TrEMBL record:
Coiled coil (residue ranges): none
Organism: Micromonospora inaquosa
Name the record gives this protein: Methyltransferase
Enzyme class name: transferase
Polar residues bias spans: 42-55
Keyword hit for Methyltransferase: yes
Biased composition (Basic and acidic residues): 23-40
Length: 327
């Protein structure tokens, strides 16, 4: 699919004219300032996670069947979260791990990881991806449990309570997603656009927003028990439209985190667009592009979604933990 260019420059790399270090009449100092801030880009709230496309990020690093999953996380998002919130040897969890993106990126970064996945077809691919990562020399250990993460505590040994440094996950949104397309007799045909082929309510993809929020809060409650004090939870959620109306999944994620006893600490943006020469180059699916074009043709100024919200929570420390930060 051709890349699509959106309007607008990337604000984060623009100079801060309030800073005393920056003067329009001092181009040398201006360049110094930009260079320094570019070097610090890994600590910005805007994560440049789509500098290359998903297929390019996965090529050679994931087994080819991975592409069948309808809502994979960009590997760069998981890798960024792991680098930001853990140290080598730490334990990372993804309770809805799909084809195992979080786990693969964790073991490549020398972290250990485990994941839960409801659908055997995806947990099998996650297993294959972990084997592939180890064949490539990844040093972390990882395993996948097939099961319902709303019952997380019945799936993992109690010895893991308080041991997890970081949870990275993303909830499913709706029973069908964009999937892949091929030309058909009567136009474009969708495929690989479902999590499973039934109406199994155990898969949160089949619940409405309220049901999804309830189930996700249950999952996060289990994660909170497994997290160590001060541990982080990173959830990516794409704002999403159903019949043209916004489904506010990020707000539902914050509500679920609060109900699970977690403290929201940051809200970042993971770009689904590349930054090229001061412009954003979006990487939309065929159907996203079609929906936005149709809306604009009929006079609705709809924006192409080119980011995921990244909601970050922390498990608070208590005085009993014997460490500094107390909520
Ligand atoms: C948005 S996808 C996550 C994709 C994953 N990050 C990856 O890159 O492959 C959400 C996943 O949650 C799984 N899921 C849904 N309900 C679940 C449940 N109750 N327990 C465990 N996994 C579940 C879905 O089957 C789906 O694979």
């Amino acid at each position: 699919m051709a890349e699509h260019t959106t309007a607008g420059s990337f604000g984060a790399s623009e100079p801060d004219t309030d800073s005393p270090a920056v003067g329009r009449d001092h181009p040398g100092r201006h360049r110094d300032y930009e260079g320094r801030h570019r070097a610090e880009a890994s600590s910005l709230s805007v994560w440049a996670t789509a500098q290359s496309t998903g297929p390019v990020q996965r090529r050679g690093r994931y087994v080819p069947e991975s592409v069948k999953h309808p809502a994979r996380m960009l590997p760069a998002i998981a890798a960024h979260a792991i680098a930001a919130y853990t140290q080598p040897g730490d334990l990372v969890l993804d309770p809805m791990c799909g084809i195992g993106t979080t786990l693969v990126e964790a073991v490549h970064a020398g972290r250990d990881a485990f994941g839960i996945e409801y659908e055997p077809q995806w947990s099998n691919i996650a297993d294959a991806n972990i084997r592939h990562a180890h064949d490539q020399g990844a040093s972390g250990r990882a395993s996948v449990i097939r099961g319902d993460a709303t019952r997380l505590m019945s799936l993992v040994p109690t010895a893991l309570n308080g041991q997890v440094a970081l949870v990275v996950t993303s909830p499913p949104y709706g029973p069908t997603v964009h999937g892949l397309v091929r030309p058909g007799e009567h136009g474009v045909v969708k495929y690989d656009d479902r999590y499973n082929d039934g109406e199994d309510r155990g898969n949160l993809a089949y619940r409405d927003l309220t049901g999804l929020t309830d189930g996700f809060a249950q999952i996060l409650r289990g994660c909170t028990t497994l997290l160590r004090p001060g541990g982080a939870v990173v959830v990516t959620a794409r704002p999403w439209r159903k019949r043209g109306e916004l489904v506010d999944l990020p707000s539902a994620v914050i509500a679920a985190g609060l109900r699970a006893g977690l403290v929201p600490t940051e809200r970042c943006v993971a770009l689904l667009a590349a930054v090229r020469h001061g412009q954003l180059v979006a990487r939309p699916s065929f159907f996203q592009l079609q929906q936005v074009r149709k809306a604009r043709t009929s006079g609705v100024p709809m924006h192409l979604i080119a980011h995921e919200d990244v909601l970050i929570f922390t498990k608070t420390r208590t005085p009993e933990d014997g460490s500094g930060v107390v909520a």
